[in-house]
Amino acid sequence: xxxxxxxxxxxxxxxxxxxxxxxxxxxxxxxxxxxxxxxxxxxxxxxxxxxxxxxxxxxxxxxxxxxxxxxxxxxxxxxxxxxxxxxxxxxxxxxxxxxxxxxxxxxxxxxxxxxxxxxxxxxxxxxxxxxxxxxxxxxxxxxxxxxxxxxxxxxxxxxxxxxxxxxxxxxxxxxxxxxxxxxxxxxxxxxxxxxxxxxxxxxxxxxxxxxxxxxxxxxxxxxxxxxxxxxxxxxxxxxxxxxxxxxxxxxxxxxxxxxxxxxxxxxxxxxxxxxxxxxxxxxxxxxxxxxxxxxxxxxxxxxx
Length: 304
Description:
This protein is α/β, with parallel strands linked by helices. The chain folds into 3 domains: about 5-90, Orthogonal Bundle (Arc Repressor Mutant, subunit A), CATH 1.10.10; about 90-160 and about 270-304, D-Maltodextrin-Binding Protein, domain 2; about 165-265, D-Maltodextrin-Binding Protein, domain 2. It has helices at about 5-15, 20-25, 30-45, 60-90, 100-105, 105-115, 130-140, 185, 200-210, 225-235, 245-250, 280-295, and strands at about 50, 55-60, 90-100, 120-125, 145-150, 155-165, 165-170, 195, 220, 240, 255-260, 265-275. The strands form 4 sheets. A 5-stranded mixed sheet has the order 4-3-5-12-6, sandwiched between helices. A 3-stranded antiparallel sheet has the order 10-7-11. β8 (about 195), α9 (about 200-210) and β9 (about 220) form a beta-alpha-beta unit. α1 (about 5-15) crosses α2 and α1 packs across α4 (about 60-90). The protein is rod-shaped, with a radius of gyration of 32 Å. The two termini are about 50 Å apart.
């Protein structure tokens, strides 16, 4: 920091009682240290050291000054350590596993914003099915994972969880788009495009239809969240997704998310997980912390 060299000169001379010894330890010329001490004494208008035959001894002024010097140096070291820590956070590699639906939602915007402020960071995002996501975390292939329905596993640590509802999704021009109260039976009057059995949210959809005692007869089944959204935008089909997966399309005025009475108690657990006993590198730890804080904001404010 400013004037830190002079502060170290004063501290060493006070500790060793000798300009020559201090100069030897600091690897500088004795004349340079002596010159700066004399200039400071002139500025203060009082001697800092009493010059005895064989050593230098602090004067009363010097005692007051050296206490301030040592406190300043201590704070200086704290600041240097903090800056060094921040440097570790701004660079590094992190690998995140997630699902296709999340990768098509607000996650890219969050990660892009994060990397815009940490331009030396390197992100690797892997899109995997849920069973492979868990294996990737446990094997150390990825640093962390963000997914729905992550099974409980003692080898995994849940860093954050956010429960998200499920609803009907239709085009903004759909006959149901302006309805305030909507039931599953209303949706069944239109073609249904739903997730197939390989997608986590299909279990929640099946449970809701069974509870309502309505047969689920989809016109289209797919494992692609993006395809479901495009089918809904293109025509009269109804699909069932959570608000995170359609946030961008809803904000753009292309899709409408409609809560359903039968889905009022149906939630998908969005979990951020890491290996239970595996420390992360500083940059990865930073991304993990920021991702955990961002999770509640993935859901559009009107749907919370």
